[in-house]
Amino acid sequence: MSRFSKAELVLLSITFIWGGTFAVVKFALNSASPLMFLAIRFGIASVVFPLIYRKNYFSMDRATLMGGLFLGFLLMIGFAFQTVGLKYTTSSKSAFITGLLVAFTPIAQAAIEKKIPSRGNLIGVILVAVGLYLLTSPSGQGFNIGDLLTLFCAISYAIYIVYLDIFSKKHDVSKLTLLQLAVTCLLSIAAAPFFERVEVHLTTGLIWALLYTSILATVFSTYLQTKYQRETTPVKAAIIFSMEPVLANIIAFFAFGEFVGNVGAIGGVLIVAGLLTSELL
User: Fold this and answer.
1) pLDDT, tens digit (0-9, with 9 covering 90-100), for 212-261
2) Angstrom distances, CA of residue 189 to CA of 39, 67, 107, 224
3) In the list 133, 184, 255, 264, which could disulfide-bond 23, CB 3.0-4.6 Å?
4) DSSP letter at 169?
5) Which of 159, 205, 186, 229 lies closest to 14, judged by CA?
6) Alpha carbon distance 258, 261 (integer Å)
């Protein structure tokens, strides 16, 4: 297996973990306000990460520090829009709209790096975008404030993916990851009093949600994404991540009874087709 295939397989495995976070976070928001949930989630991750990936984090050059701070800012913005948006929309719609990052990533890469995606990537993006539309529209719930916030999340993530590709090729992966986790935690704490009524009710469900999201979906996933995304292109990574809403929809169906119908199922098939097209063309 080539290093490129290995990297894309790792990114796909991360997508499986992320697919479960929408239902988990939606449930957890019954016990904590969005930004405080983020603060605790990334606070736990910031403590656990250096215990697992041991390194001298005090020896850090200015370029790595600035890169990590910038990535952390972008990551926090994306997570904040997504988590607050989940208060007002369903977990399945949140996953689908987040998946629109696959359409925004080529635009972001063209604007930032002046790179045009390959033909296979562009065809894959079109198939995924149509699939995501079909997955989202059957809900019949209209476009609400939660959907709008999640759309901003998708745009933020697309920009984050492009800059992660740039910085991860130049700087130490472990240090970049820890900086992202810490910045997201600190910014969430700072923003919470201004944007929400701060609430945390420590329940068994919240504890399990924090463990799942902080360890699996943050510590391991952020490190693996930072390490392996640099082995593929930003657009290809975004297309791989488009499998996330398909998985999230399956989980949301069993967890909350959310169902997008037959048209939505066709959308799921198109997303898989877009992923395969991007890989094979």
Assistant:
1) 999 999 999 999 999 999 998 888 888 788 777 777 767 767 766 666 56
2) 6, 21, 32, 25
3) 255
4) T
5) 229
6) 9
Residue pair 45/214 in contact (Cβ under 8 Å)? The answer is yes
Element (H, E) at 261: helix 261-280
User: Nearest to residue 63, comparing CAs of 170, 219, 194?
Assistant: 170
Please tell me the distance from the alpha carbon of residue 280 to that of residue 98, in angstroms, as a whole number: 24
Distance, CA of 235 to chain centre: 14
Give the C-alpha distances (Å, rounded to integers) separating 185 from 39, 75, 189. Answer: 4, 10, 6
Alpha carbon distance 131, 26 (integer Å): 23
Rounded alpha-carbon distances, angstroms, from residue 220 to 16, 72, 227: 13, 16, 11
The total of structural domains in the chain comes to 1
Residue 30 contacts by C-beta under 8 Å, 6 or more apart in sequence?
A: 205
CB atoms closer than 10 angstroms to residue 160: 26
Given a contact cutoff of 8 angstroms between Cβ atoms, the answer to whether 176 and 167 are in contact is yes
Per the listing, tokens 């939660």 go with 146
Amino acid identity, position 219? V
**Dist. CA 281–CA 261, nearest whole Å:** 30
**Does 272 score more than 80 pLDDT?**
no
Q: Which domain holds residue 37?
A: 3-280
Which amino acid, 275?
L
pTM, full prediction: 0.83
Token pair belonging to 41? 């989630």
